[in-house]
Sequence to fold (448 residues):
Amino acid sequence: MKKPAEFYQRDRRWHPPAFARDYKTSVARSPQYAAISLENTISEITGPTFGHNDIDPIDNDLLSNFAQADQSPIGERIIVHGRVLDENARPVPNTLVEIWQANASGRYRHKKDTYLGALDPNFGGCGRTLTDTDGYYYFRTIKPGAYPWRNWVNDWRPAHIHVSVFGSGFAQRLITQLYFEGDPLIAKCPIVNTIPDPQAVEQLIAVLDMNATIPLDTIAYKFDIVLRGRRSTLFENRLEGN
Amino acid sequence: MAQKLDYLKETPSQTAGPYVHIGLSPGDAGFEIYSQELGRDIAGPNARGERIRVEGVVIDGTGAPIKDVLLEVWQANADGIHAHPEHPGKVEEGFRGWGRVITDFETGKWGFDTIKPGPVPGRHGIIQAPHINLWIVARGINLGLNTRVYFEDEEIANASDPVITTIEWEHRRQTLIAARSMRDGKPVYRFDIRIQGEDETVFFDI
Fold:
């Protein structure tokens, strides 16, 4: 059993600020007061754990997890793969990674999405998997299309896949978005541009990975995810109060 | 020039967006795909302790309820133990301590059924009052917001809780205290979250 140890402080100048004027919805949904800094307790160091009983093996295959028998979704067949690491570059094993995305037309299978792009009867748009003992994960899916949204009059989201990951403690909980190398919409997007540092934006761009591509079958993109690291020393020796 | 530290940078956060349900709660987006959706049962059937419901709305800076929020819950069992290998002790079979709920698309109401957690060890041997950790994501929220639910009928424990007492402005501490009432013989705690403005809920940088 590992000793409880606290996570490195989150760099809130690297993450997007709560208030980002050009992403209009953030204006009324950002706290005015500063967050209260809280040193980790066992309530933040621990977090939910998941096992293979929680999910099905097909859950990471968006090409087939909603398709009718002998059918496939329409679109560019891709593999998205990578590792979940912490800031110390240590793998994060057995952690739950969940994704969701629009189809090739930029249409989401959601009752609130009314975009003209057609639904694909063979595409659901969500997947989940556990990282292996080396922190590795992969999904099969189709590349999502760009998508218009009501922010400025002519705003379009770059092709993106939403990514949710847990880590080993609740303090590592993270939701982000994966973008695709070379997409000219990335630089124009007010949601991407909530992130102040261009290097941080780079970290969200999945890179074409020809080595992982399956010839005559599926193109691959690599996307590594980094969660908060943690101290190697016990943060205190009286955790239980004795 | 000094040497360089070789730490990696954390992957930056992005908003969960309006269609978060597709990934994390697809039944609510309008389609069935997984054999089981996760986070539906927090305490399980065997958990000791008082069965409670916690519910509320999330309100934006204009005073309107936010109707596309997803909340995650993390809590200890009635003995103050988390279902995690790094927390010494055992929890009841089936107790997960983790849950996931969304707000109703029409009303913005959310709620979950669980058991009331016990006091949890804090730092330096100081006991924390019973509390539930909440994590809130939605369209317009760029980085998930962390807060805690405390219980109004734990007045004595709350008064010495090391997290509550860290909050310098005493009047803001009240924003973390859920109000207890009874409905059909069952305890219900009301916990409204105000993201911005008057009576803004305290959020934590954890």
Observations:
- The CA atoms of residues 51 and 115 of chain B lie 4 Å apart.
- The first strand of chain B starts at residue 51 and ends at 59.
